[in-house]
């Protein structure tokens, strides 16, 4: 089980990313638009830099929803390999059959 503080920190970041997503998208569109003047683009970059750092989606970490583990994460199932193995062995993951030979 991951530290509760790490999981909560990631949840706070996810909320910030969601809150500022529209504003970030609009500012990035202006900043990357070649047809705009240099001053407009520069001003958009300054406003973008003024946003909270944790509002950037690259600061999010994929974590297991069961244990909070940050590594060996399966995106499709939103869980780590260890949690997947435990739940699969108990028969709680539909369609997953543990192989043995």
From TrEMBL:
Gene Ontology cellular-component terms for this entry are:
ribosome
Its biological purpose is as follows:
Binds 16S rRNA, required for the assembly of 30S particles and may also be responsible for determining the conformation of the 16S rRNA at the A site.
- How is this protein organized at the quaternary level? Part of the 30S ribosomal subunit. Contacts proteins S3 and S10.
What NCBIfam families does its record include? PRK08881.1
Q: Which UniProt keywords apply?
A: Ribonucleoprotein, Ribosomal protein, RNA-binding, rRNA-binding
Give the protein name, as stated in the record.
Answer: Small ribosomal subunit protein uS14
The UniProt family comment states: Belongs to the universal ribosomal protein uS14 family.
Task: Give me the gene this protein comes from.
Answer: rpsN
UniProt-listed InterPro entries: Ribosomal_uS14, Ribosomal_uS14_bac/plastid, Ribosomal_uS14_CS
Instruction: Identify the species of origin.
Output: Chelatococcus albus
Q: Which residues form a coiled coil?
A: none
């Amino acid at each position: 089980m991951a530290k509760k503080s790490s999981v909560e920190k990631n949840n706070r970041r996810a909320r910030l990313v969601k809150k500022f997503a529209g504003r970030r998208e609009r500012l990035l569109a202006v900043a990357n638009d070649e047809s705009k003047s240099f001053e407009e683009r520069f001003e958009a970059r300054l406003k973008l830099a003024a946003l909270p750092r944790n509002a950037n989606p690259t600061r999010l970490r994929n974590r297991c929803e069961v244990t909070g583990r940050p590594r060996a994460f399966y995106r499709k199932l939103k869980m780590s390999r260890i949690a997947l193995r435990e739940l699969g062995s108990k028969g709680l993951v539909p369609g997953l059959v543990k192989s043995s030979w």
